[in-house]
What we know:
By secondary structure, the chain is of the alpha+beta class. It contains three helices and four strands.
Amino acid sequence: MLVRKFLFAHGYRHRLHDKKLPGKPDIVLPKYKTVIFVHGCFWHGHTNCKYYVVPKTRTDWCLNKINSNIANDTKAITALKKEGWKIIAIWECKLKPARVEKTLPALLKKLS
Ligand SMILES: [Zn+2]
């Protein structure tokens, strides 16, 4: 994964998918007490995003799934904050080739 390689290249050591943490964050940086979630725009309901388009078929099923994902995200973030973690969420659309060059340096800034 892009974000992982980038962090590694910049000397950030991390763990992946820590199952002990709420919401199983995609990347965990214990040294910085920071977790990173990479959210798929569709399944996590990225508002005002061109990749979040509610489908015309199985609409209810999709919306239920998306809403439950969002609820789980919110719950996990609340729990992690309580434990003193800093949370960074990255939307998948920000990792597309046209935008990734801005997204990754911005991420480094958040970490430092
Ligand atoms: Zn998006």
